[in-house]
Specification:
Elements (H helix, E strand, L loop, with lengths): L16 H9 L10 H8 L4 H28 L3 H15 L7 H11 L4 H5 L6 H16 L2 H7 L6 H15 L9 H24 L3 H29 L5
Organism: Streptoalloteichus hindustanus
Enzyme class: oxidoreductase
Function: Ring cyclization and eight-electron oxidation of 3a-(2-amino-2-carboxyethyl)-4,5-dioxo-4,5,6,7,8,9-hexahydroquinoline-7,9-dicarboxylic-acid to PQQ.
């Protein structure tokens, strides 16, 4: 039997770099900045128990990010990419105990009134949040390293959101001590640069149409993971007695 005919209207060659980046950026509407929970957060309409639930569940995401990044490194055969990506693990885990982005998130959890022990033992982590985050880590382990890297391109959408979140939380939740915002202030210093360098890696190493489309799908998957996290938190917040 002969092979199936190729549809002449189906593109087979790689997208030009500008079109590829545009396809990635077009996913910004799927980012979690417009989720109803985040809208309430920015408008100052969350109660203290709701902020605590958010902080405790977001902790699970934060603490799993180094495992996701380690999976990408394990799958990548290129030492120059591995060296570059290693900085992300160091950023989140810190070079020493008590440092790093994960520890800064614990400071936020404490600033909203949680005890560090109850965050670390994950008693407040919702099943839907755990399922979504674990799916993200498993995605990085099972898929190509290019897809794993591309999934992190939500960084393209986050610098403006993070600046606005910091300003809105300072305004609407003045009872949160300034030490609780260390995660956001430190993250702002690196997220824009990480986003640009990640785009460069994806564009350089996704040289075929198939790889490019897989990268776009990976970023869409990550957006869905983030929204699933907030879906679970948002639903649980509606069950909290006023």
């Amino acid at each position: 039997m002969g092979s199936a005919p190729t549809d002449p209207d189906t593109p087979t060659g790689p997208m030009p770099a500008a079109d590829f980046v545009a396809a990635l950026r077009d996913l910004s509407d799927r980012y979690w900045d417009r989720h109803p929970f985040h809208l309430r957060l920015h408008e100052g309409r969350l109660t203290k128990p709701e902020l605590q639930l958010w902080a405790a569940n977001r902790w699970y995401y934060q603490r799993c990010l180094p495992q996701k990044d380690a999976a990408i490194i394990a799958n990548c055969p290129l030492p120059e990419v591995r060296r570059h990506w290693l900085d992300r693990i160091v950023y989140h885990d810190g070079r020493d105990a008590g440092d790093g982005g994960a520890r800064n998130w614990l400071r936020l959890a404490e600033a909203v009134g949680l005890d560090r022990a109850e965050v670390l033992d994950e008693r407040h982590v919702l099943p839907g949040v755990r399922f979504a985050v674990d799916a993200y880590v498993n995605f990085a382990r099972a898929r190509s390293w290019q897809e794993g890297v591309a999934s992190g391109l939500t960084e393209m959408f986050s610098p403006g959101l993070m600046r606005r979140r910091l300003a809105d939380m300072r305004e609407h939740y003045p009872w949160i001590g300034e030490e609780g915002f260390a995660y956001f202030t430190s993250r702002l210093a690196v997220v824009a640069g990480e986003g640009r360098s990640t785009v460069d890696i994806v564009v350089q190493h996704c040289g075929t149409r198939e790889q490019q489309e897989a990268a776009v799908a990976a970023l869409a998957f990550k957006c869905d993971v983030l929204r699933a996290i907030l879906d679970s938190i948002d639903y649980a917040c509606h069950q909290i007695a006023p």
